[in-house]
Design a protein that fits this description.
gluconeogenesis (chains A, B), EC 5.3.1.9 (chains A, B), five-stranded parallel sheet, 18 helices, alpha/beta, Rossmann fold, isomerase activity (chains A, B), four-stranded parallel sheet, glycolysis (chains A, B), Glucose-6-phosphate isomerase (chains A, B), homodimer, 2 domains, 439 residues, globular
Chain lengths: 439, 439
């Protein structure tokens, strides 16, 4: 706030309050949209018994489980897996969980090497049913499965896709493959609390009811509280908006002091960038990890361009910890008796103080520990903050019009029928200048 | 260039050429500084036989090898390991390689669970000899080693530190522990081609002579060519500088179309941010991975704020590849017969065309394949581009003055002697506003 870091970089309380009427009005619009554009707000209330049941079957029957999906079809599930399962899950527990996202053959190989395809369940996830990377990876896997298992290949597949439309749904109907629905009103990046995220989470042994309970709790808090100073989602949205549009903070850094939350930031990056990056507006989300990036990015954050607002994620308690020995040489005796988690927490405080001194605006979100309930709260918090930000920027946070163009050029380059004109356009546009070759 | 995307966002050839005299002058300054500030330019010419020899001993003697270091003491080594060893190295080869960077206890546990401490060599890397995270992790490991091995614990340690100064050197001398030197004239983020990066690389089985041969080649090219249009390092530096200072491109995105180069970007992020982020200047480096981030960030890159210049890294050939089957349903028949690597490459082209259409300036660096020689070239290329950029921005690219403050607050919070005043300052500065609690 301005009272801490000054008015040039900090936000004034009066500014927040000046949006009072806007917030109240938007709050009521959101409540009305919960069965339409804001349908993701309904997800915490769904019945998940069929998901749990099928996940139980997969857990009993298979040694490995591979999500084939990309973007909104995998980031949420991966975030849940990496934050909520035990360290080294795949070394200790069955089924092992993998994500096949990219069409990078090295990545493909690395997954193949770790699974026995006959004992692996593949969850193909694409809302449209036709995402290039997902279908490409799936096609290769499918031919391998058929070769290994003949007609029984079906049992090793689960599709998560639109309930009616698209290639994958059609194929699933034809071949009688087990399918889960992506709710039509929920876009990929808002779908983690649908079967897209919940099925892989349940297979990984995560308590998905607790996850939804946390989301419900946050929904309750944010539905009741229409005052920006008491509604955490609106406060996050509005402070980022003011920081961006009135203080030039065009970059939103999210910096958890926890390696396990690394992919929470990947999930947030898509949510924030794809929802708000349009009409020449929106912040660029940037991932940093504490303390690692203190040794890489803090120089820039303190003394570079003053274009950042930083959100720290702090875990108050760690389920596991290690104590530094009591007897240490004098040079390092200040470490004696502290624990690793204590040092991590104090480094966060030290870094915050240094940023405050440099007048860098920052927000801290503390959770007592990494639990399904708390992650559920965080998911809902950021989804709602993103949806609310759409009203602030006066843009539609639920579309992604600029993503199509690159796909169309790719189709053209692959010789897909009907894309001849696009190929001509490509040749017009694409020019290489300054080609320097070094042998 | 402006002729492709227009003058508002693109660079004019005349602009590049207007720096001609500056470039020639700086080129000659750099040649003179190669034994001083630009000492990293000498590293490709060092004799590495003692590193190879000791690495050979470690490879024979130990099952695992853990680098304990953070920032410049680990990012380079991790980049070499992740880009240049075989996929799933740790599942197939000995010694397994790990990096203990953060003081996150979960991370610490995850490494401990995968090693047998008696059969593990720990490489403690810190130039100053006193980096908090490194010393904290090392202290815990040291007491475990002593417990397991008694006086023989020494054999499981190698220090890489300043040849004369610091706590670690002192301890190493006292306890007669094997040590390698960080050249005093080379800062952490420029040290990957010193024993900091080379020892772990050699232990991982990487051909470090090839790595240096690539760096030498790039040194040769860039030493001979003082014309900006033919010197790849100067062209990268100058085009980023013009994009930043004259076109408002405050963000430099690096986007490899290869998962293996993910940590090359982590290494670049530190180099670019910590070297140039000072005096209110410098770009914010951002990591993106193709194709994954097409489904997360491309919406923003095309239609968000016009503040980005993008560097693509393209791998022309893949050592491994998978072919999509010939017979596919009609809806997806355009994929038939293509390979995963082909799709990856075409997606890169499609994305580039879409960005060109949106007038986003971009650079592509193509390497024929991921090899030690090529990575050596890239390392030297970016180190020199960064050093050269220091002259453009008129800042010292080799210091990091803003990093100390956070450390000092952390020391104060941990009760280190002599930091009482800092603790008072902390209490003055640190104020929490708008604390919202949700149970």
């Amino acid at each position: 706030m301005a009272e801490v870091i000054g008015e040039r970089d900090g936000i004034l309380r009066e500014e927040l309050l000046s949006f009072r009427h806007f917030v109240v009005e938007t709050h009521s619009l959101i409540q009305k949209e919960k069965n339409r554009k804001f349908y993701f707000c309904r997800l915490p209330y769904q019945n998940v018994s069929h998901i749990k049941e099928y996940a139980g079957y997969i857990r009993d029957r298979f040694e490995s489980f591979v999500v084939i999906g990309i973007g909104g079809s995998s980031l949420g599930a991966r975030m849940l897996f990496e934050s909520l399962t035990e360290t080294n899950h795949n070394l200790k527990k069955k089924p092992k969980i993998f994500f096949l996202e990219n069409v990078d053959p090295e990545k493909f190989k690395s997954v193949l090497e770790q699974i026995d395809i006959k004992n692996t369940c593949f969850n193909v996830v694409t809302k449209s049913g036709s995402t290039v990377e997902t279908i490409a990876n799936f096609s290769v896997i499918l031919s391998m499965l058929k070769k290994e298992l003949g007609d029984n290949y079906r049992e090793n597949l689960v599709f998560t896709t639109d309930p009616e439309k698209g290639f994958l749904r059609k194929l699933g109907n034809q071949e009688k493959i087990k399918m889960f629905d992506v709710p039509p009103l929920v876009g990929g990046r808002f779908s983690v609390l649908s079967p897209v995220g919940l099925l892989p989470a349940a297979v990984a042994g995560i308590d998905i009811e607790e996850l939804l309970a946390g989301a419900k709790k946050m929904d309750l808090v944010c539905s009741i509280e229409e005052h920006v100073e008491h509604n955490p989602a609106y406060l996050i949205a509005l402070s980022h908006y003011i920081a961006n549009m009135r203080r030039g903070k065009t970059i939103s850094v999210m910096m958890p002091y926890s390696e396990k939350l690394s992919s929470f930031v990947d999930w947030y990056r898509q949510l924030w960038a794809e929802s708000l990056g349009k009409d020449g507006l929106g912040q660029t989300p940037v991932k940093a990890i504490g303390t690692v990036d203190q040794h890489s990015q803090i120089q820039l954050y303190r003394e570079g361009i003053r274009d950042k607002i930083i959100t720290f994620l702090h875990i108050e308690k760690s389920d596991v910890d290690y104590k530094i020995p009591e007897e240490l040489p004098e040079d390092i005796s200040y470490l004696s008796g502290h624990s690793l988690h204590e040092i991590l927490s104090k480094e966060l405080l030290g870094t915050k103080a240094a940023l405050i001194k440099s007048k860098v605006p920052n927000i801290t979100i503390s959770i007592d520990r990494i639990s399904s309930y708390n992650i559920g709260m965080l998911i809902y918090l950021y989804e709602l903050a993103t949806g609310f930000s759409g009203y602030l920027y006066k843009i539609n946070p639920f579309d992604q019009p600029a993503v199509e163009e690159g796909k169309n050029f790719t189709y053209a380059l692959m010789g897909r029928e009907g894309y001849q004109e696009k190929l001509e356009e490509f040749k017009e546009l694409y020019k290489e200048k300054y080609k320097i070759e070094v042998q």
